[in-house]
Structure formats: C-alpha cells, structure tokens
Amino acid sequence: MKQKNHYSDQPDFYDRAPSLSIARELLLALKEDLVEELIILTAAMKGRYPNDGGNPKKIKKIEETFGHFPQCKLKFIPTVKENDGYFPLRWV
C-alpha cells in the first residue's frame, strides 16, 4: 500500500506558511496584557508523531510566535482516519 505524502512533510513548509490570520492581533493583545489565557488547539494524527504530539515543525512555528507569553498554551487534538477523512477521536 502506497503511503500518502503530506504537504506538511516538506522540509520548509512551516517556514513558508503564514501564521494564523489573526496572529498579529493576538500578539498585540498579548503584548498589551489584554489576554488572560490563550489556548491554541492543533490537530495531530494519532500515532503519526511521537507521544501523539503534533508535527515538530508546526510546534516550532507556534512556539516561536506565541511561546514568549506565559499565558499561551498549546493543546493537541488527536485525530484518526475514518472512511475518507480525519476526525477528532471524540467524534469517532
């Protein structure tokens, strides 16, 4: 069975990809101490990365952008493949 190539596996994908469309506004609000807590949710295919965490390149990009603020947290939503798509485990 042929393994599917994922666009995020490209070595420079996350270097070229822009941050969230609202990243600038979030960063400004964080700098002005207007945000008490910011939780960034990101999906990761269960079993694809160590400890069911996300793509290390994606984590690095998020940490470089938001990791300087102690009120920011990163949480993973593990997904599984079912039929023709990937779904959060809580939906399966």
Series of secondary-structure elements, N-terminal to C-terminal: HHEHEE
Radius of gyration: 15 Å
Strand content: 25-35%
What is the count of helical runs? Answer: 3
Average pLDDT value? Answer: 77
Report the helical percentage.
Answer: 25-40%
Regions with pLDDT < 50 over 5+ consecutive residues?
A: none
Task: Give the key terms.
92 residues; globular; three-stranded mixed beta sheet; alpha+beta
Would you give an account of this structure?
The longest helix has 11 residues, at 56-66. With 92 residues, this protein is an alpha+beta fold. The chain has helices at 13-16, 23-31, 56-66, and strands at residues 38-45, 72-82, 85-88. A three-stranded mixed sheet has the order 1-2-3, with helices on one face. The protein is built from three helices and three strands. Helix 3 (56-66) links the parallel strand 1 (38-45) and strand 2.
Summarize the structure.
The chain is of the alpha+beta class and 92 residues long. It has helices spanning 13-16, 23-31, 56-66; strands at 38-45, 72-82, 85-88.
Topology:
Layout: H1 13-16, H2 23-31, E1 38-45, H3 56-66, E2 72-82, E3 85-88
Parallel strand pairs: 1-2
Antiparallel strand pairs: 2-3
